[in-house]
Design brief:
470 residues, five-stranded antiparallel sheet, 4 helices, binds 2-acetamido-2-deoxy-beta-D-glucopyranose, 3 domains
Length: 470
């Protein structure tokens, strides 16, 4: 631009000098504008005209004005262009700076996120570790630590919660829904557990401790389930446990829900009371109802929506046998009076493994079958003359079936028994308490000679007295 201006100016000057000798001075003022000064000899005398300009001077003046205007325009235009360019340049570099800043921020955020993710993972691992570990020895006030009456010889053995070597490390798939050690309810439970009497022995029983059912003690509450899943359920002990478990082990299934597959194991009654399972198993097939039983290292249960009996081997943690129970009603065809799809109910007694159910052929009367515990084959069956849907529950002691009259009445009776050895039934009247008024499971444990029951969220046990009827 400046170059153009100079060229234009020069060509003008050439034209001007043709008029005579003229001196030209030019410089830049503070506004970067060209200033031109002409000194022209007078054609008539060597002095400046005192007044007025000659026509030539006027012509030069006007041409100079034109040049100035042109230069100003060119210079101004160029300045504007530069400013615009500079503005653009500035905006561009600002955008670049902004982009770099955002990039850095993004990198920082990514780093922070990774750190947080790692923290979350560490915390999750910590939670798992803590759950697999025993709680620190923490004695609730008023409860003596060495309560030897509870479980003679075991006391409070937190270390039992530690994983069995090579077995239990990977079993944390599901967890006890409650983990409320030290809750107010705990002390109450503890007090009740502390009153746990020794198993009753009677001279009138035979060498196996068998006899007729004479009486049933008051229920003792061991644990209350804390979620709705535990309104009804089944809890069990294996009278003939197999390693790696022993007969102190307590097993529990909360059975409310359509996909019931969680089996919790507790080292003993004490740990059940505290809600500290040492084992949690996820059963490969869903469980129906509260009829499951534990015997010789296997869990026996009815597969959901079927008459299929399942033997789940606790040691191998797989299904070891399955078999359809021929003609058995299921899923609400012949349940106990409270419902709950309790059509098929396993039982264990001094004689082995049984199943209590009904068939259309029996027209709803209770059928008892003794099972081969290994293969689940029916060894022998008995048909009683009592309708299954009229009884609240049933259990077998020493080869005799007993039925509970009501599941809800706090004071009810065992009012019927059937002896498989004589095939005789009879009416009896043995008082029985539904302390929590919704009893969904009653089973006999021949090892401890107790009834275990699940009464409206509560896992309760009853002592039984056996002997010769007077
Ligand atoms: C047992 O009690 C229930 C409920 O009261 C009753 O319906 C049933 O007839 C009784 N059974 C016997 C054998 O007495």
């Amino acid at each position: 631009m400046w170059f153009l201006a100079v060229v234009v100016t020069c060509s003008l000057l050439v034209g001007t000098q043709a008029q005579g000798t003229a001196n030209l001075k030019r410089w830049n003022d503070q506004n970067r504008r060209c200033q031109y000064t002409f000194t022209v000899e007078s054609p008539t005398e060597a002095s400046c005209p005192s007044s007025g300009f000659s026509p030539e001077t006027e012509a030069l003046k006007s041409r100079l004005g034109l040049v100035e205007a042109l230069v100003a325009r060119l210079a101004g235009g160029e300045t504007l262009g530069t400013e615009a360019q500079m503005g653009l340049q500035e905006a561009y570099s600002q955008a670049v700076r902004e982009r770099d800043r955002l990039q850095q921020e993004k990198d920082r955020s990514t780093e922070q996120m990774e750190e947080l993710q790692q923290m979350v993972e560490e915390l999750q691992q910590e939670v798992l570790r803590l759950r697999n570990k025993p709680c620190p020895q923490q004695v609730p006030p008023g409860v003596p630590l060495s309560d030897s009456r509870v479980q003679p010889g075991t006391g409070i053995t937190h270390s039992n919660l530690m994983a069995r070597p090579g077995r239990t490390q990977d079993t944390g798939r599901v967890r006890d829904p409650s983990w409320s050690y030290g809750s107010p309810a705990y002390q109450e439970l503890k007090a009740e557990v502390a009153e746990f009497p020794a198993p009753n022995t009677d001279e009138t029983t035979d060498s196996r401790g068998c006899g007729e059912l004479l009486s049933i003690g008051d229920p003792i509450t061991h644990r209350k389930a804390d979620s709705i899943a535990g309104k009804y359920g089944v809890w069990m002990q294996d009278p003939e446990a197999v390693t790696p478990y022993n007969s102190n082990m307590v097993w529990r299934i909360d059975t409310v829900g359509s996909e019931v597959r969680q089996l919790y194991g507790y080292d003993d009654m004490e740990q059940l009371s505290r809600g500290f399972p040492s084992k949690v198993l996820l059963l490969p097939e869903a469980v129906e109802s509260t009829g499951a039983a534990m015997y010789r290292g296997s869990l026996y249960y009815q597969r959901r929506l079927s008459r299929t009996l399942i033997r789940y081997d606790l040691g191998l943690e797989t299904i070891a046998a399955r078999r359809d129970l021929q003609h058995a009603g299921f899923h609400g065809q012949f349940p106990y009076s409270w419902g709950g799809y309790t059509d098929i109910d396993f039982a264990v007694d001094e004689n082995g493994l049984w199943v209590i159910y009904s068939t259309s052929k029996a027209k709803g009367a209770i059928v008892i079958s003794q099972l081969d515990p290994h293969t689940l084959e029916v060894k022998q069956s008995w048909e009683t003359n009592i309708r299954k849907t009229t009884v609240a529950n049933a259990f077998i002691i020493c080869g005799r079936l007993y039925t509970v009259a009501s599941y809800a009445s706090p004071d009810t009776t065992i009012n019927y028994s059937y002896d498989t050895s004589t095939k005789q039934s009879k009416a009896v009247s043995i008082p029985f308490k539904n302390k929590h008024r919704y009893n969904s499971m009653v089973d006999y444990n021949p090892a401890s000679k107790k009834l275990l029951a699940w009464d409206n969220f509560h896992m309760v046990s009853y002592d039984v007295r056996l002997g010769k009827q007077q």
